[in-house]
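Sequence design from tokenized structure. All designs in this work follow the same two-part layout: the structure record, then the generated sequence. An example of the structure record is given first.
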């Protein structure tokens, strides 16, 4: 959230937390190459973003800018997703991809992130900061769930889909019963599963149930049976017994 005019910079892959004056980079103490992501207002509810590759010795490279409208003028959800393998940096504003930069060189000197507020006549407050591993894929916008569907639908990353009855998840594959056949789909090819609503029955809350939020998206309510560094064992009338990796969760809510 911010007050006044929004101006903010984020240094990506930095090897120092000391701010760098970009117009006099060569005169600053030595630092490794990094990317500078600049974000600022240039009109009413309008935002401009720009990415630069900054060197200690040598001219900085301008990698492109984008202008877009902002639905609000005092708060936003900002996500930066970067992939060394694909040599891309992606900026999401309120869950919408507004700009993707690609740099064939992708030369960087560190692994740090540095925030530099540059407010004009106001202030900036950062909250709910999260850092997690990203697989480099930009998820497609998936079609919404159709009310009262009679089959389970697996929506794949390539925009195909599989419609049938989801039978099981085993050995990293989802198994669907389709007509008289079975179709197995690797889990890493599935972006979303919409379960049939005519079979959905909400399980009543039980004393001791907790609600967990997954890293990235989604939540689940269950009874906690055990928690160790190797795994979390849970049970529910909805799905029976299951085990999860502890690092899959970003937040846990215990019910009174």
């Amino acid at each position: 959230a911010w007050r006044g005019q929004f101006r903010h910079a984020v240094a990506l892959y930095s090897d120092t937390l000391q701010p760098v004056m970009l117009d006099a980079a060569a005169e600053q103490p030595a630092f490794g190459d990094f990317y500078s992501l600049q974000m600022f207002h240039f009109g009413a509810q309008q935002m401009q973003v720009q990415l630069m590759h900054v060197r200690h010795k040598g001219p900085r490279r301008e990698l492109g800018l984008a202008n877009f409208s902002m639905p609000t003028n005092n708060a936003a959800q900002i996500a930066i997703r970067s992939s060394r393998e694909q040599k891309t940096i992606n900026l999401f504003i309120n869950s919408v991809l507004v700009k993707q930069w690609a740099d064939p060189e992708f030369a960087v000197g560190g692994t740090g992130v540095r925030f530099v507020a540059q407010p004009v006549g106001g202030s900036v407050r950062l909250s709910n900061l999260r850092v997690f591993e990203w697989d480099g894929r930009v998820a497609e916008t998936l079609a919404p769930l159709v009310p009262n569907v009679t089959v389970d639908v697996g929506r794949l990353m390539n925009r195909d889909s599989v419609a049938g009855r989801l039978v099981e998840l085993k050995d990293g594959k989802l198994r669907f019963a389709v007509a008289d056949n079975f179709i197995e789909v690797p889990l890493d090819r599935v972006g979303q599963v919409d379960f049939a609503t005519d079979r959905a029955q909400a399980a009543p809350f039980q004393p001791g149930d907790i609600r967990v939020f997954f890293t990235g998206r989604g939540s689940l309510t269950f009874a906690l049976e055990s928690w160790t560094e190797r795994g979390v064992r849970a049970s529910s009338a909805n799905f029976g017994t299951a085990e999860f990796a502890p690092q899959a969760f970003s937040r846990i809510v215990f019910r009174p």
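The two ends are 31 Å apart (CA to CA). We note this feature because it recurs in several other targets discussed in the main text.
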